[in-house]
Amino acid sequence: MVQSRKPTDCHPGATGAGRRIYDLLRNQIADGTLVPGARAPSTRSLAAELAVSRTTVTAAYEQLAAEGFLVTAMGRVARVASPLAAPAAPGTNASRRARRAPSLSGFGRRLTGIGMPALPDAEPVRFDFLYGAVASRDFPTLVWRRAYQAELLRQQRSLYYVPPEGDAWLRSALQGYLRRARGLACEAEQILVVHGSQQAIDPCARLLLDAGDAFVFEDPGYLMARRCFEATGARCLTTPVDEHGLDTASLSQDERVRLAYVTPSHQFPLGGVLPIGRRLDLLQWAARHDAWIVEDDYDGEFRYGQRPIDALQSIDTDGRVIYIGTFSKALSPQLRLGYLVLPPELVPVFRQAKRLPATRASIIE
Ligand SMILES: Cc1ncc(COP(=O)(O)O)c(C=O)c1O
């Protein structure tokens, strides 16, 4: 007889009689109650004992057989498989591993040691000071739904992968928008569509910095970007900001500096707009150090009263500025849609870098 013990809930979300039978037998195999070679209870008797249909029991046995826990054959009673065929029960490996520190790459070790900002509470609050949230009533739901449906119908021609750099039509629309709204004269080929600006910052860190290099970072600045750069093992050279953004007179002359991350159109979090004099200083500094500038234009669309100031990349004649834009502030961070405008020489390597973890772009969203 199967000794009915409460099955462990090792599979969150598992429900139903079949799932309970599966767990029950799997646990009994794992803890040795059912030893290798032992007969499993007959499907008929187990069904009667648990007051479930025989089909339910048979389905659970078939699953256990498919996973190598039971050996079944037509007309024969099911038996527990040999120990070699039976993988350890879930949880066993995990709990054994949890006791020792996992063996990680240098990147993994650095990441473990890096403190991340806490995720916001899901609990509703009376006054929400969370920055960057978009009021749901401002989202153009109807227009979005219409466009979404039209796009779904248009896409039916093929459901194959989209190129990693993103849909050609979206990139060409972005090219036009960036020229009009941000003063950027780029080719659509320079645009790489990604899942939000955070996913744009990550390859900048990985592709442009080595451990031991240094990067310039605004103080105070956007912590999640800083963490991306620090995870490479590069040193953070914090540079003060004032009401006009980055204080370019304080830029480090460290010879290992390879990159500066800046938010010139709206310094994060203080809001200063970097004046033209400082923009030129920054570009000249980058030229002297042969350094890249990562321009995070996370909310460059927003200005009160006057046209948004053009992007830093629009006055870069030396191909040093990597521009990052996002739909998170103007539409919604739930879209996870952002883009990079890359200096032409960086396009191939950034496309490759995007292809490795993500393969291709999303086209439907
Ligand atoms: C300065 C800055 N950069 C980047 C991001 C990330 O934006 P995204 O949602 O596009 O990843 C944020 C998010 O608030 C931000 O404040």
UniProtKB/TrEMBL annotation:
Record-annotated HTH gntR-type domain positions: 15-83
Superkingdom, taxonomy of origin: Bacteria
Q: Does the keyword Transcription apply?
A: yes
Question: Which keywords has UniProt assigned to this entry?
Answer: DNA-binding, Plasmid, Pyridoxal phosphate, Transcription, Transcription regulation
Checking Pfam families in the record gives: Aminotran_1_2, GntR
Coiled-coil residues are none
Name of the featured protein: Transcriptional regulator, GntR family
Family statement: In the C-terminal section; belongs to the class-I pyridoxal-phosphate-dependent aminotransferase family.
* PROSITE patterns given in the database record: HTH_GNTR
Q: What Gene Ontology molecular-function terms does this entry list?
A: DNA binding; DNA-binding transcription factor activity; pyridoxal phosphate binding
- This protein's species is Polaromonas naphthalenivorans (strain CJ2)
Membrane found in the keyword field: no
